[in-house]
Amino acid sequence: MTATATTPPLIQAPTAKEKKYDRQLRLWAASGQQALEDSHVLLVIASNGDDGSGSSVAGVETLKNLVLPSIGNFTIADSAKVTEADLGINFFLRSQSLGQSRAEECKQLLEELNPDVQGHAITTPLSDLLKDPSRLRPYNLIILCAPLPQEQRRIICEYAQQYSVCLIHIQSAGFYSSFSIQLPSVFPIVDTHPDPDSIQDLRLLSPWPELLAEVKALDDLDKLEDHDHGHVPYALILLYYLEKWKQNNEGKAPDTFKDKTQFRDMVRAAARTDNAEGGEENFDEAAAAVLKTVAPFSIKSGCREMFEKDSCKVINEDSASFWIIAAAIKTFYETHGVLPLPGSLPDMKAKSADYIKLQNIYKSKARKDVAEVSQSVRSMEKKFSRKDVIPDGEIEAFCKNAAHVKVLEGSLLPQLRIEKGDIQTRKTMLNELQNTETLLPILLAFENGSRSQLDDMIANNGKIDFEALNNQFAEVDRVGGRELHNISSVTGGMVAQEAIKIITRQYVPVNNTCIFDGIGGTTLVLKL
Amino acid sequence: MGRDKYPRQSLGALHSQIKQARVLLIGAGGIGCELLKNLVLTGFGEIHIIDLDTIDLSNLNRQFLFRQEHIKKPKALVAKEVASKFNPSCTLTAHHANIKDTQLFPLSFFRSFTLVFNALDNLDARRHVNKMCLAADVPLIESGTTGFNGQVQVIKKGKTACYDCTEKEVPKTYPVCTIRSTPSQPIHCIVWAKSYLLPELFGVGEDEETSDQLDTSEDADNAEEIRNLKAEAQALKKIRESMGNDDFAKQVFNKVFRDDIDRLRGMEDMWKSRTRPTSLNYEALQSEASSSTDATISPSDQNTWTLLENFAIFKSSLHALSMRLKQNAGIAIAATEATNPAAVRPVITFDKDDPDTLDFVTSASNLRSHIFSIPLQSKFTVKQMAGNIIPAIATTNAMTAGLCVMQAFKVLRGDYFRAKMLFLENSGARALNSEPPRPPNPECAVCGIATGQVDVDPERATLNDLVDGVLKSELGYGEEMTIMNEVGPIYDPDMEDMLPKTFRELGLRDETFLTVIDDDEENPRVNLQLAVSSKRKLPAGSRPVVLAPTTAAMEDGRPEEAGQQRGTLEIARKPKKATSDRPEEMVEGNGVTVVIANGAANGTGTGKGKGKVKRSADEAGLDGADTLKRKLAADDDGTGSGAAGDASVVTNDSTKSNGDVDGDALGFDRAQAIMLDDAAAGDGSIVIDDD
Fold first, then answer.
1. Is residue B523 part of a domain?
2. What is the reported pTM?
3. Of A443, B400, B424, B596, which shows the fewest CB atoms inside 10 Å?
4. For A16, which residue in chain B has the nearest alpha carbon?
């Protein structure tokens, strides 16, 4: 029998809100939902007259997908009046909307989707609004619908960068669309939602005294009764034979693939086969787990990069909670050569009591590790006389996810960097343009200004496929900024998904550009 | 100029084709609402919407066509009403009905559409539409979402793989009313026992939301029924308080198997097209109960227990669990690490490996199955049927529906080769994966077959008229064949006595299907699926069973000539069994080196090849094959390379790496994993999802 705790996890009864949003809470939990409900999203649409719909449908569809899961507030800044062509592609307008304010009309119909959400409309021209950029202060996510006048886009992007507000720039026309995300220069994510299977960390090659004592207590496996032998948890089986292996190999654990294969054979051979099943399930589990679990602890790139950041190395009174915990974990890592133990134990064949005992050994170790990290967090707090005490839960969650934490580095919107003639951005693009299946020309075609800028660079490069490039340019020109509803709808789905990741600070958002080709049914994600 | 100015400009020549298209949308739920909005705003000329359900409060947070005031109204009708305001030139027709009703929606109905969209939430209906569209030779765009994942697949007879070309996993969540009020399959009763009754008696007790398989946010027949169900649960909670008393089992039994059932029996509307349940009585069963003890019943897990055996096990497992809960109360409080004292409360949750909970779920589900005339299941089978709740969000539905319309454009152009299988996936590395459509699986039991139609006069036609008159003499079948109807075999050479029976006697009415299996040992034909039609009047004296002409010929046919019209059929032979289980190129095609036209999507925009390996692997994982991901993670860790498992920087290119012993060997493992995975789950499968 596979053992599980006789005392199952204690679950609190769900509240009404938990019920309403049950399906999404399973993806981003109560903390993510709270973050959504605390957010205020600004959607900026330019008034383009007859020159296309200005990605307004993609923008409004994005809002739809944020209103449904219940963001707190949204504001639409759009000074345009509703045209007949708008009615044909924008679902959040109705016949009576014709000639009315597009912002007001969309706001009203979007609000109807969810009574928990507050909508607002700003109908003054964008140029007036931006005379005082501090009017952008209430918003914690800004979504721009391209094309916007260059100057206005620049003001908003620079404001967002200055105040570390996240920003998404969307463009949709015909069968193509793209979005770029401008993240703050440092965007840490603790809850990256790694694959559940990759979280398991048994530390078989760096066991601690309590775990070793449990192996010792087994004494001689060969002397166990059949039933007991068939119920030793596989983690202990592996630890037991690792000790044996080390005795025969100058104290070294299996290292190379050959070693591990031999070790696996050794474990497999130890299973008793003189039974009805012709083997033992726990030994099968042990053999199957060798390659995965018999490996020295290694720290993943995301975590390593985090440790190398200046914000992690130098803590001062202004440091964010994230960096204080990160620094404490760094100290832990430098002291022990491992990260705090996540503490979860995978399911394994065992007697219930044995499994629970082993589970508790892992849990206690994890708690001990958290306590050590907390202690160094508290001493830093004291040292810098911080007023706000970092909640225990935050430290605990960080420790549990330490191996998978990620710090993204954002920079000014790539479109703006192109505009400013940033050399590095040009280089990246030039490289990308040499890939035969690249969709980058779509983005360039959307950016009227950058086309001519790139002309001379492209012209002198023999590796670029001009036909594909020109085809994508021609297609963008052909549709002349007119949106196709279903393409804008797909785009609105993608952008809202990224917006949710950004607002909840869960999962890893696209950094920084995604281009969608509806004809090919493909996307290209680039870091420009 | 006007409303359609923008779509006209983008779509060009296709725009007029779209305006003339007649499309069928099946399902007006999560994807359906999105699809309808897209179809209307893209300018489709005529749209039919079919949905069986009515609107529930819990639908409103993502099925955005519906509002508070629409609750209890049919989804199809409201969706039509709301959506039609957005494009006056589009003709919308709504059917509040079950797509599986072949009288309402016969083959000819399917044939009348240019294109069909599936936006369904269950395997059964998906399979049915797949079959109908294949038989009618109408292209189908199939879609589904689960959480952040979504899939779109174009299905066209003879050109692409069909829905059943790959094996499908059993759906894992169920609408609450199906579980609580109108179960029709064993799994419904199992979920009821596991996710409702067990938690109500031994769990946190609040309600079924904490459970894995019960979907309370979907598809409720109406709010009133939900209220009734809430009251039922409340009453059960009262009974829970008497746990440990001698008559606890009797109280529980009479509540859930007698009183609640009697209440359901009274709901006339519910049983119009369903078998009415029959309640059980504790006292009656108790008096009949034999002396056989549960000690002998419980271990026999391969056999299906009788009603009385189930009754005995229900009582004994209920008793065992009650005792355990009482015992655990003390232990739980001592052992808990919870900081919140309010949360301390002992519970027992379902564990397939805990014999008491398994016995309880098996017996309780079987008692309920008995009540609803559903086949009982062995403990062994019950154990297998377990799963998890599936999250659903607006964003994935939006993307999926938009992509469906994109595929529709290709279908309208007849450009099946450029249609794509699309996979949405939540990852920083990419948003969308696509691959070319797969060819039909020659061994598919649904599309790897020949199809035809027989026109019959059900009064005169006998089975012999079909066997001798058509199959043997016209199509060249030998003696060895089996004919199946939708339930089972009705003819093989040992069932000669069936031959003189008429179609009417055999229940082979209009719009039923027959399958002819060629049992020739040497070179058998593929299975032949024959649609039975009695619409065409066959003149008296003519042969009472004739092979109908092909669809095209039939549509052109003039009624007066109908009697003479006779079709022919080309029936292919079954493919020879492959010598190896899986040809080499399949491994490549589905697993490792396939070129997915998706650009470099690994976050750097440079490492193309590497991105592809990772992408294919993840893609396979999307298809419900967690084993693969686990295996990959395992391998990554095994190399100790340090950067493995990092979502956006693909550093492990071990399938291609040389010179590193570990890498090569693991690379091999990896390819194996993908292959196994394909074989097991069958990628391209659209699993259960938001409707």
1. yes
2. 0.71
3. B596
4. B209
